[in-house]
Amino acid sequence: MTAKIIDGKSFAEGLRGRIAGHVERLKTEHGITPGLAVVIVGHDPASQVYVSNKAKQTAEVGMASFKYELPEDVSEAELLELVRRLNEDDQVHGILVQLPVPKQINADKVIEAIVPSKDVDCFTPANVGKLTIGLPGPVSCTPLGSLMLLRDQLGSLEGLNAVIVGRSNLVGKPMAQLLLRDNATVTVAHSRTKNLADVVRGADIVIAAVGRPEMIRGDWIKPGATVIDVGINRVPAPEKGEGKTRLVGDVAFAEAVEVAGAITPVPGGVGPMTIACLLANTITTASLINGLVPPSDLTA
Ligand SMILES: NC(=O)C1=CN([C@@H]2O[C@H](COP(=O)(O)OP(=O)(O)OC[C@H]3O[C@@H](n4cnc5c(N)ncnc54)[C@H](OP(=O)(O)O)[C@@H]3O)[C@@H](O)[C@H]2O)C=CC1
Ligand SMILES: Nc1nc(=O)c2c([nH]1)NC[C@@H]1CN(c3ccc(C(=O)N[C@@H](CCC(=O)O)C(=O)O)cc3)C=[N+]21
Ligand SMILES: [Mg+2]
Description:
six-stranded parallel sheet; 11 strands; binds magnesium ion
């Protein structure tokens, strides 16, 4: 049996269609045009492509898109000043500062400077707290996108064993909170976990968020399990020509696809969902800022 391949790209397209409907309603019924500001520091080519995609998709769903490109050597004070201006700007409902930032800038300080009501990444302590206790607010984009794919694939997650490999603030920890809320039994593994392969073998749901190309092998996967591969790793692809690269996940896809029940590919799995959920969060924050109840189909 080969696994069903979960088409995150097409699911994200459908989600963006629903988002466009909510944008239209906010405009016509409430006179609000949701706006997303994306800030990028430096000229890392991968980040540039990724930020351009976000700007394009933001405009496509009818939202206002603001893009700020700061030079690699910008001072921390200048970046903090821009964040403060965006905090005050009524046309902006979401602020995203693309990470990582150059060495002279303290990322924690930048995150702290973002007003929680516009924190569409769900990075600020206030929003992490809300997520944890289940209050309305933005939800970490990659975990939210992963959860939407899981619910679509499995229906209820109740009682299922979920193993998350990775405990970052960005992915692993918020993913654990969301899965708990859906009544899964959650294990969070990391670099000090003993017998990782055996831990993963007990999982009905595997979330791979390690940042190590193809580390999770096919024989770690329980037959029929659902595998969500968050990893995005660029590796050399000499077969495509000298100096060429390709993207792979944290799961050895060719092996796992023979064992799993369903699996997300890289690219075309979680990545497109992350961007769509950023737009979903901008609808959520635009609604809350204006005293409206956020649409329930765009959150956890
Ligand atoms: N698809 C998408 O939209 C997104 C993809 N990503 C990708 O997801 C991956 C993870 O990102 P992120 O969470 O930020 O990564 P981090 O580097 O912040 O965290 C990696 C986690 O993996 C754990 N880890 C590292 N090595 C091992 C190992 N050998 N065995 C077990 N656990 C290990 C670390 O453990 P410890 O805590 O002990 O150090 C850590 O908790 C990356 O490939 C990233 O590019 C990220 C964001 C969005
Ligand atoms: N403040 C902040 N918030 C983030 O959410 C954030 C960030 N900084 N910094 C970088 C990481 C990484 N990340 C990705 C999102 C989508 C794709 C994506 O769309 N990937 C495509 C492939 C893209 C390609 O071909 O390069 C896919 O998987 O199909 C990738 C990576 C968000 N991040
Ligand atoms: Mg990280």
